[in-house]
Amino acid sequence: MMARLPLLLTLVLLAAAPARSVTLSDCRLPRAGGGSVPARCGIVKVPEDYGGTGRTIELKLAVVPAQEPSRAAEPVFILAGGPGQAATEFYALAAPAFAPIGRRHPLVLVDQRGTGGSNRLDCDFPDDLAVVTPPPKELAALSAACVAKLPGRPQFYTTSVAVKDLDAVRAALGYESVSFYAVSYGTRVAQHYLRHYGTHVRAVILDGAVPPQVILGETLAQDAERALELAYGRCSAQPSCRAHFPDPAGDYAALHRRLANQPLKLTATDPETGAPTAVAFGPDELAGTIRLLSYSATTSALIPLLLHEANEGRVQPLAAQLLMFSRELDVSLAYGMHNSVACSEDVPFFGLPDPALSRTYLGTTEYDSLIALCQPWPRGVVDPDLHAPMHARVPALILAGEADPISPPAFAITTAQGFPDHKLVVVRGQGHGQLLVGCTPELMVRFLDGSAATSLDATCLETAVSTPFFIDFAGPPP
Question: Which of 60, 292, 344, 429 could form a disulfide with 111 if both were Cys (CB 3.0 to 4.6 A apart)?
Answer without folding.
Answer: 60
